[in-house]
Amino acid sequence: MDLSFDSFVLAASTADLGDEPAARGVADAVEFRMDLADDPLSALDEYDGSLPILATNRADWEGGEADASDAERLETLVAAAEFDAVGAVDIELACLRADVGVDAATRVRDAGATVVASVHDFDRTPARSELIALLHEAAALGDVGKLAVTAHSNADALRLLDVTHTATEWGDTVATMAMGEAGRHTRAVAPVYGSKIGYAPVDAADATAPGQYDIQTLRSLVDDLSSNPDV
Ligand SMILES: O=C1C[C@@](O)(C(=O)O)C[C@@H](O)[C@@H]1O
After folding, report:
1. pLDDT digits (tens, 9 = 90+) for 70-120
2. Taking the CB of residue 75, how many other CB atoms lie within 10 A of it?
């Protein structure tokens, strides 16, 4: 299924594709956290939902639970991309800097899926120059550059929003969000500044990152705040 990020995509983030019916009508896609699932390729094989899937197999060195080698982990992602329902695949920017990641991205695209190049910082929000450099590099190596940082203050959140706006004005396709309580509002506000992906669990108790809203709440916040795209 097609998953391009020309306009905002709200992804229901889950380890259980059985959540799809509950997300349908609210979300635009399902983010399948393969690293949190027991047998992800079988789950994809059995999937009969109507929402396109963004497949993520997050490495343990990037805050996820996949502890296979990068080569093996990426191979699983390429296998995921071959399923019709998978419209996009998340590959960590650190992998895309090496041949193994570039090769995986090529195979994912050959299978008809888009590549989300992601960077996470679970400790802090880096300085503006670092944010700009990371986001631009991710947007260049992926079809979308995604940056999730941790905000501890309004200044952190504002810096992320500013960088989102700047990168979007340059023509980069980006997705941004600040994790943690101080960053929570950026999940609703960053789309106003150009962020093209939001992540939210169907049920708040199943959050896949700190500070996420549940999907219904994020849908209505984003729709309310982004209702005038010409600003
Ligand atoms: O990378 C991201 C973003 C995220 O960490 C968030 O902060 O919403 C949630 C993850 O499931 C997803 O893979």
Report:
1. 999 999 999 999 999 999 999 999 999 999 999 999 999 999 999 999 999
2. 16
What's the pTM?
0.96
Q: Whose CA is nearest to atom 7 of ligand 1?
A: 209
| Number of domains comprising the chain | 1
- Give SS3 for 11: strand
Q: Please indicate, yes or no, if residue 161 is contained in any of the structural domains.
A: no
Could you identify the atom of ligand 1 that is nearest to the CA of residue 31? 11
CATH number, domain of 75, equals 3.20.20.70
Report how far ligand 1's centroid is from the alpha carbon of 209 (Å). 6
Cα 37 to Cα 41, 56, 78: the distances in Å are 9, 11, 17
Rounded CA-CA distance 203/7 in Å is 24
Q: Which residues pair with 29 in a beta bridge?
A: 11
Q: Is the CB of 209 under 6 A from ligand 1?
A: yes
Q: Which residue has the tokens 């949190």?
A: 36
pLDDT band (50, 70, 90) for residue 171: very high
- For residue 71, the enclosing domain spans 9-115+185-225
State the distance from the centre of ligand 1 to the C-alpha of 126, rounded, in angstroms.
Answer: 17
As given in the structure block, the two tokens for residue 215 are 């999907």
ipTM of the complex: 0.97
Residue nearest to atom 13 of ligand 1 (CA): 56
